[in-house]
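User: Please predict the structure of the protein below. I'd like the answer in structure-token form so I can feed it into my own downstream comparison script.

Assistant: Understood. Taking the following sequence of 238 residues as input:
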Amino acid sequence: MRPDIHRIRTYIRRFDEDIQGGIPTGQVVLLTGTPGTMKTSLAYSILFRNASAGKRGLYISLEQSRNNLLTQMAVLGMDHDEVAENLDILDLGLIRKNLRQIGTSGTWMQLFKMYTENLMDNGGYDLIVVDSLDVLEVASGMVDDQRDELFHLFEWFRDLDLTSILIKEADPDRMFDASSHEGYLADAIISLKLVEMSETDIQRRIRVIKMRSTNHHTGHYSLLFNDGIFTATQTISD
């Protein structure tokens, strides 16, 4: 008998069908891609659409200011006021700036977890986005034993008992290099990339590299964005 797995929809048109209805709840998901692939916009869109459907979400920004983020998303057709009851934004960038004088490597990570856990206690969230894992790693001083520290961080996310999307700026084709530990530790990897079709045409693509407990297509889809909605379509040949 196939197990009944609860899932969080991405609300990317024609994409959820490929991942058996959505991301399995409780998974730690890497959303990877190079600059310009709309990682932040897609992650926010997943939160926004789920909030519209009644699920509670939290967006934690470690670099971009809250006002800047909300202005950017409103321009793209996702007005936070429409879902404010179910979507919270935590801007930790200012706190990070004020901690530069503190030298211990564990301080920032402890504060990040403390703020997050306090919100978890009061929020009852279904979904969390962290933007970005790269900033969290650098600010926390993950140097000596990065894989071990990441292992404990990912386990901490799993213990929150919700679905986590961690944004990471990376070339998806190099997610399993020897120096990259995140790909091995995550439950799922959704990658975005830009493909040059001609001198005047760039195509954005999306691919599920891995997703545990899910039978999914491993190839690329073209990713389109229009009027605040993402759509996955058959890939146009190079």
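That's the full token string. The chain is about 30% helix and 25% strand.
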